[in-house]
Amino acid sequence: MCTTVRCLSEHNWKQYIADEVTEMKGHVLKYPVEVDRMGKVKTLPGCETFPDVGGKIVGSFTAIQENLTI
After folding, report:
1. How far, CA to CA in Å, does 63 sit from each of 39, 52, 60?
2. What whole-number distance in Å separates Cα of residue 60 and Cα of residue 30?
3. How many Å apart are CA 56 and CA 49, to the nearest integer?
4. How many Å apart are CA 69 and CA 62, to the nearest integer?
């Protein structure tokens, strides 16, 4: 049984992407990304898009950069 927020969020993510629909114990989900030591953000293996809406999990930073005022 999960006793930390991280554990619960990872467990909920696994339920969310599973083929079988089951009742979740909360609404906290792990965002499906990994960040390596160099700061590069990648999707979790097999999770390039959100399963319910199909949107990309990792987008492009270019559009954000164009709208930032420094």
Report:
1. 19, 24, 7
2. 20
3. 4
4. 13
pLDDT tens digits, 19-38: 999 998 888 988 888 999 99
- What are the distances in angstroms from CA 3 to CA 12, 18, 66? 13, 22, 42
Backbone φ and ψ for 43, nearest 5 degrees, come out as: -75, 160
- Reported as a single tens digit per residue, the pLDDT across 35-50 is 999 988 898 888 888 8
Sign, Cα dihedral of 20, 25, 26, 32:
negative
The whole-angstrom separation of Cα 8 and Cα 25 is 8
How many angstroms from the chain centroid is the CA of residue 27?
13
- Measure the CA–CA gap between 8 and 59, rounded to whole angstroms: 25
The model's pTM: 0.68
